[in-house]
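Why should sequence recovery work at all? Because a backbone constrains its sequence more than one might expect. Tight turns favour small or flexible residues, buried strands favour hydrophobic ones, and helices have their own preferences. The token representation captures these environments compactly. In the example below, the structure is given first.
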């Protein structure tokens, strides 16, 4: 059902990256991983097309939310889910506007999967098989 969608997961914590990779791959998506802001920008602008980015707002080598500002200017627009702690979002709501925020917590993985599915249904219905 979800074949054809490629999701980039960017998280500072290697354990979180692997957990998300395992869970999202099990849902049928292709997954790519990034460990820092530089990796994210390389994937977004230089490699295969991506359908969604799951972004830790506190990546190494990223200055505040400047990377999200760069991503907001990308054409075509890349849907972004900011996956972080509520304190990570403090004071950045204007920059987060086009992105969806999902709080990191013990039970957030199921909610994150639902948000992923909802976004991809809206942004790429031609890739979803009935």
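From this structural description, the recovered sequence reads:
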């Amino acid at each position: 059902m979800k074949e054809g969608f490629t999701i980039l997961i960017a998280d500072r914590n290697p354990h979180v990256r692997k957990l998300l990779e395992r869970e999202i791959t099990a849902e049928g998506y292709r997954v790519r991983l990034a460990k820092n802001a530089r990796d994210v920008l390389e994937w977004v602008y230089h490699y295969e097309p991506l359908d969604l980015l799951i972004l830790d707002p506190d990546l190494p080598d990223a200055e505040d939310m400047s990377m999200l500002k760069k991503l907001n200017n990308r054409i075509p627009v890349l849907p972004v889910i900011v996956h972080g702690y509520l304190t990570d979002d403090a004071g950045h709501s204007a920059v987060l506007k086009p992105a969806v925020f999902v709080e990191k917590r013990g039970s957030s993985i199921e909610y994150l999967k639902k948000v992923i599915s909802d976004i991809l249904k809206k942004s790429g219905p031609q890739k979803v098989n009935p």
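A few observations help interpret the result. The longest helix spans residues 108-123.
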